[in-house]
Structure formats: C-alpha cells, structure tokens
C-alpha cells in the first residue's frame, strides 16, 4: 500500500467507524444555542382529522418557538407495530424529541426507552405511554370527566333509560380504554342505573370498519337507543350508519367528535350533542412541553410544570402527567361556529 492509498484507507476506516457510532449508541446532547430542534409528532394514524388539527397546533408552536422543525408522521392504520417502526427510524434520524399518541400503552415502551437512552426526549400526548416509556404525558382533560360526560350525553339524548353500546377506536388504545373503564364504573352508580351497556365494539379508527361495526350493532340490538363513540372517527361512522339504516329519532349517537366533521350529523338528527376539547391546543401544548424537555428546563419534570406559550404554565403531577381544559359540548346551537375552527 503506498502512502496515498494508506491515508485514504485510514480516513475511510475512521469515517466508517464514526458514522457507525452515530447510528448506534451516541447520546444526543442538549442542542446548542441557534441549533435547529427537530420534534417528531407521531400520531395513531395518518388521515385522521383530529391529528391534522393537532399538527396545525404543533406548527403554530414551532413558529412561536423559532428554530423548531416539526416532523409529522404516523402509520397508515393505528397499530403499535407501525409506530415502533417509525420510532426506530426517528432514533436513526436523531430527532431531539418525540411527541407520541400511543396505539398501545406497553408495546411501545421498549422502543421509547431506547429513544430516551439515546437522549431523545419522549413525551406522550392524547393517548399515553406507560410511565416508564415517557418523560411526561399530556392528557386532554381529566379522564373521569371525559368518561362521565359521554354517559351523561347519552342519557340526555334518550331520556335517561335504555340500551346503549360503545363503538371505540382500536382495542389497545390507552385513552379510549381509560374512558371506557370510567363509563363502566359509572354505569354501576344510581344516576345511570337505567342505562344498559349491551356491547363494546372496535372500529380501529378506520371509517369503513367503524361503519361496519356500527351497522352490526344496529342490526344485532333492535332495542338499542344510543351509540357512544369515544373517537372522532367512530362517531362520524356511527352517525352515518344510523342515517343509512333509517333509524334517526330511534337511535342517537354521541361521544367525541370534531365539529367540522359532525355539523351535518347534528342537522340530520342522528346526533343531539357531542363533546371534544381543542385538538389544536393539545398539539400546541404538547410541542411546547417537548421543547422544555429538550432545552433541559429545570421545572420540566414530574412535580414541576412546563411553559405552554399562549396557554400559560401547565402543572405536571407526581406521575409525570398533565391535563388541559374540560371537554366542551356541541349541539345545534354552536356546532357551525366551531366547525370553522376544527
Ligand atoms: C380519535 C383518536 C384520538 C382521540 C379522539 C377523541 O381521533 O382516537 O386518540 O383522542 O378520537
């Protein structure tokens, strides 16, 4: 080997080794002043209007924080496997933070831990990761409130008594399962004693599957009075099924929906009222939270707080959870006004 080829070979070996190291094991350090911060928002699935709204909130936060890039991503259908693959690739891309709405509280923990070991700040929002898989979880609101409000809306729609069914998102979704548990507990209480839960089915936050499941409920339970869909995808599909089966006025749909997607179904009469929090604010605040963790702000920890920009400071409890505002109720009186926003 002459001198030139020796130098080239040495350089190549050194480069190869360092790029290998970059790919596995090195810890991302706190970004220097002026360095671009890359925050990946990993949603349950793409094509869901709720997450599109959260994305616009993340972009708003990025514009205010300056020097922040949002990488918006998610699987095509809501599966933990799809999200694991995505997080793996975000680790190789060495993003600074991952803000995730998890399709499963536990299945994603090992990959989230791997990301954190590499210095990536992992924050869950909307649908949580188990505590050991994230630094913080941002709830849209109090779970108890969200669960009970949905039963209350169902009871209001059907005069307080009758058969009800739940059309949920995917069977492992952290957020929906927490709310369903709250509903099942509340059904044991005297105030909801006349509501009878006859079935819980899963539409996987896919319009076609949700629609088929809703049709199945309507045909299997002829005395059904209400369908509660604690998912913005499911509630639209259930309302369409009620209209298509000519059951408007006999079966009412309620749950969590986006005013922009629900206005027509309030007009058709399939839905009297539904609820939701502001998904734009949720994405906005989650992005601010991730930013504080990336910056190593001392208060950004369990028992502390984070700066949520135009929303002020938000407290983080001892379990690393934070919560935003109460869900808001929509009906014929206000749905058109909010339909213009989200
Ligand atoms: C769907 C998703 C999301 C949930 C909303 C209410 O868009 O399942 O996680 O928070 O509904």
TrEMBL record:
Record's subcellular location: Periplasm
PANTHER family: ABC-TYPE SUGAR TRANSPORT SYSTEM PERIPLASMIC COMPONENT-LIKE PROTEIN, D-XYLOSE-BINDING PERIPLASMIC PROTEIN
Cited Pfam families: Peripla_BP_4
Family: Belongs to the bacterial solute-binding protein 2 family.
Periplasmic binding protein domain segment(s): 39-296
Gene3D superfamilies according to UniProt: 3.40.50.2300
UniProt record, GO biological process: rhamnose transmembrane transport
Signal sequence segment: 1-22
Swiss-Prot/TrEMBL keywords: Signal
Source organism (scientific name): Pseudoduganella flava
GO cellular component, as recorded: outer membrane-bounded periplasmic space
UniProt-recorded name of the protein: Rhamnose transport system substrate-binding protein
Chief location category: periplasm
SUPFAM superfamilies in the record: Periplasmic binding protein-like I
Record GO terms (molecular function): carbohydrate binding
